[in-house]
Specification:
2 copies of one chain form a homodimer. Chain A has 2 domains: about 5-130 and about 295-320, Rossmann fold; about 135-290 and about 325-390, Dihydrodipicolinate Reductase, domain 2 (2-Layer Sandwich), CATH 3.30.360.10. Helix content of chain A is about 35%, strand content about 25%. Chain A has helices spanning about 15-25, 55-60, 75-85, 95-100, 105-115, 130-135, 150-160, 165-175, 185-190, 190-205, 225-235, 295-310, 315-320, 340-350, 370-375, and strands at about 5-10, 30-35, 50, 65-70, 90-95, 115-120, 140-150, 215, 235-245, 250-260, 270-280, 285-290, 330-340, 350-360, 365-370, 385-390.
Chain lengths: ~400, ~400
């Protein structure tokens, strides 16, 4: 069996983790041969001969079979990945933002260049969800997918729920521990799990949906009142990516949800991720694992590399079977809405309001609202509201 | 793509489920062409032309590509499966007892005949654990596997724990609802999960171990005292199949365990199954799904059929890599032992006893005991003891 030679872009925690794992595990025929990094002056733990600062050194090296892309910048990543695919190199990436924003082009490129592009590490870290959706549920009638796909927000929500911390305090703690970035916007405003959801959509229902078409609402406005409401009702608040199919239309969004104690997501704590599939015949299926961190992510990357050794590529069977399933935001969901502005409530034009509450400190309604309306009113950019599905 | 023609053995609930699922799902190129059943006088829901009562009608029919074996009798199943493999037919089976008892022969047969033999439905129903172990963790340094692999006992244990039923009452309820058989021995005495564990052992650590070499202890002696002890300590009792690797020796057994509320198994209720993997790099991974029932099992069988369409077969990479790892019962585990006979306690020769309790109604010790000793003293056949791991 041939030994794969890897050209690695980026040598942060995941890249380091990958290098370590590759050198500790036996039986995987692959080695890191070249590493392209940005900063010349950073001290490196490996011999200088491994490193280059020019991406062409990897892209034009015909002795390298695989490009593993582990850099932060999504635009640079797209350049590298598309160039590598065009040159006939297999590619492994963990860059959800890049994949989500260029998914259809990257799909087309794979078909044209006839080279594999694998990205298990881009969604839910160590949980093998993409491969399972591709390989195991291709014949099953999948109805729905729900996922806790963002470890940062799940860590924060665990702290607000279990230790009664305020959102601000929990975020600060997450930042101190390295679970949240100094600019946490992509995580707390639920862009990161939205990117992941759009990737999952292709492997769940076979459709490509642009991230800007999917509604996301984060936890950045979570108040003590919201937490108290959840606690009193026996709920935990979890940030759930959701997609489901009804009458051959697909809905998808990322919105916090009040989760009951009998639901499996209730006990998914801290930086763990989890995915639940609803399938007509196999009933509910649940996967849980570490969503972030250098080793869990590196382990998913490694698993893709190992699959490349065996000639694996995604078949996108569902894209070929269902690729024309319509995606629609014209769907109603039941939500708790804490609000200040009565005009907003009128504009949201609830189909039905089943509960109204007002006190000196806050007010909320519970009712059914249209997802497209939430997008139109840019709800995620307001600071005076919090919504959660029921 | 070629349409697979299936010869089906057995047409009970799973066979029916498979037929239904195959006819409802699109995009899987396979059809049930012939069904071999035992009882001529049973009324059938399908046209009589489908049925035969002679296994040779399927085994000798060259137009059939795949044999799906779904009968109860393990000896007859082995005859059918081995004959089919020798004739070059691909085989799908859900028969854990048969596979467990003949695993090494069946492995050799696959290699000789060079035909695939798939059996995802034999372990944990709809959870794709074998395929995941084969495909996804081949490169990962797996340390351990724990599983709730038997829906019947998990149902009974859920009732004894949550509704405070006695074991006898819970068993009766499970039998009335069809979750337990009229002779429940294989389930309650933990033979069924042991068969499954031996199958998992080949895909986890690459070794074949005979079921008679693995210690199993069931829930048949569970008393109100044991349940009360668990409740007072905040534990739930779960029947866990376990294997782990220490210093390149593999241990494996099926024994009830006191599970704490922070463990993921704590909330695995009723007929659900779950598997937790411990891996050096991806940390803990958890899979949950329905372990039994016609559709979950049929869905796993279907998934194997679908994989056959794409030419899939188990590679048994770990057997080829680690096939010589020694299996050993010379290992110590910490247990709660409720007992009556002081001589038994002496014979068990605990390495260390950390707690002793005696009352008018029962007595127990907590301490470390050797697994081989539990086998030698035939603990599972005694009626006066209960053990659970801590």
């Amino acid at each position: 069996m041939k030994k794969l030679r890897i050209g690695l872009f980026g040598f942060g925690v995941v890249g380091h983790g990958l290098y370590d794992v590759l050198h500790k595990t036996k039986g995987i025929h692959a080695e890191v041969a070249k590493i392209c990094v940005k900063h010349k002056d950073k001290e490196r733990t490996l011999d200088a001969a491994y490193f280059t600062y020019d991406k062409e050194d990897i892209l034009n090296d015909d002795t390298l079979d695989v490009v593993v892309e582990l850099i932060d910048n999504a635009d640079e990543a797209y350049e590298i990945v598309s160039a590598a695919l065009k040159k006939g190199k297999a590619v492994v990436s963990a860059n959800k933002k890049m994949i989500s924003e260029h998914f259809e082009e990257l799909y087309a490129l794979q078909q044209q260049a006839n080279v594999p592009f694998l990205y298990e590490a881009s969604v839910c870290g160590s949980i093998p969800i993409i491969r399972n959706l591709e390989e195991y549920y291709d014949n099953d009638l999948l109805d729905s997918l729900d996922g806790i796909c963002n470890g940062t927000t799940n860590y924060i929500l665990t702290k607000t729920s279990e230790e009664n911390l305020t959102y601000e305090r929990a975020l600060k703690q997450a930042q101190e521990l390295g679970f949240a970035e100094s600019n946490p916007t992509l995580d707390v405003k639920a862009y990161d799990p939205k990117y992941k959801l759009t990737i999952l959509l292709a492997h769940t229902f076979g459709i490509f949906v642009k991230p800007e078409s999917v509604f996301n609402f984060g936890i950045q406005n979570l108040s003590a009142s919201d937490s108290t409401y959840a606690r009193e009702k026996g709920f935990k608040i979890k940030l759930l990516a959701h997609t489901s199919k009804h009458e051959d239309k697909v809905a998808a969004f990322v919105i916090p949800k009040f989760v009951k104690s009998e639901e499996l997501f209730y006990d998914v704590r801290n930086e763990f991720n989890a995915v639940q599939l609803g399938a007509a015949f196999s009933d509910k299926q649940f996967f849980l694992g570490k969503g972030a961190g250098s080793y869990p992510t590196a382990s998913a990357v490694l698993s893709d590399i190992s699959a490349l050794v065996y000639g694996y590529h995604y078949e996108y069977k569902k894209v070929k079977q269902n690729g024309t399933l319509p995606f629609s935001n014209d769907t109603y969901i039941e939500v708790y809405l804490r609000y200040e502005d009565d005009q907003l409530l009128r504009d949201l034009n609830f189909k039905h309001i089943s509960q109204r509450f007002e006190s000196d400190s806050y007010k909320y309604v519970i009712g059914e609202v249209n997802v497209q309306r939430l997008i139109d009113l840019k709800l995620n950019d307001r600071t005076d509201v919090f919504i959660a599905r029921l």
